[in-house]
């Protein structure tokens, strides 16, 4: 794919492009995938994407969308830092395959390309399994043979060989690698080989095809994935099988057609940041503190028997069935050009509603730290709000996505955020 156009853009950062007619049409198709409210393309080539990070490829136009961790700069160094931040958030948000590959040395070979990263992970995992032991199983086969192999299938023999006394329909069990799971793998590998542009990925996918040389490609459908049953004998393939399914589910065209594919992997940035902060806290708290994600759900009030104004905190720290702290993660800029904190009133009002409804007087607002921001303070705000019978403490902090997660946890540990007898953080 020598004529592939790769476009890099930060989420929520406008960029001006010179596009061919075909590239313009491809981006308009991408808009149909992302949604008109999330992608804007002006007549002069100005492109703006909001809310999502990841990748989309339509025909020969690949759009890479990175987290907005830089204010203005849109150079390769900034994109690389954003790529590293995205990988970090993915690796701590349930994408274990990303976590296993996310060392600086291994990540460098993907050149900041999110699609190539996923292809590389898939190829690495698949080859590792094949080298240990390619999955084989018994397959029931019925064939017409001139000799007896297995058992004669009398009903099939009567139907097909009534006038051929020297031919017999036989039924036998064949131990083979040409099974449904491997057929799915080969089909997905063959099409990924057409999409990748990295030499390393092409080499590994080609090696995978050699392992599957005696396996046929098949037509993939939505229901075929449920026909693969995992047991104790093949359970090690389940993770990479789910990755193959991910590629299929995120392609808008059937993998068996000759048409160009539309690949996409899009993650809402706000939710990804929430999940990242949640995982950090969940893996850091001592026993006895339960960290809940997006809950517990409560309502502000009732009217005519109907519950109104749902509340669902991003993260809640619960001890002895009592919410003792709420953490709200907001992926947005919070500092001005001089480093001053710009905490919105609406954010504070939202925290006040949480405090009243959950009887919780400790709340933290977590924002990302942008590249190049001059302020170095971990904590941005510490405000006390008098309530009728208590004091609500609202603190705002910046999460530095450039530093490694262990360093971030250490900063949390040594800050005054959790200097409470009920909240003690483990250093990991």
Low-confidence stretches: 252-260
Number of helices: 12
- Beta-strand percentage? 25-35%
Largest sheet: 6 strands, mixed
* Element pattern in H and E: EEHEEEEHHHHEEHEHHHEHEEEEEHEEEH
Shape: globular
**Mean pLDDT over all positions:** 79
How far from one another are the termini?
Answer: 44 Å
Rg, please? 27 Å
Which structural class best describes the helix and strand composition? alpha+beta
Helix-residue proportion: 25-40%
Overall strand count: 18
Order of strands, widest sheet: 11-14-15-16-18-17
What does this structure look like?
The chain is of the alpha+beta class. Helices cover about 35% and strands about 25% of the residues. The strands form five sheets. It has a six-stranded mixed sheet with strand order 11-14-15-16-18-17. Strands 1-6-5-10 form a four-stranded mixed sheet. Strands 2-4-3 form a three-stranded antiparallel sheet, covered by helices on one side. The longest helix has 20 residues, at about 115-135. The chain is globular and about 80 Å long. The two termini are about 45 Å apart.
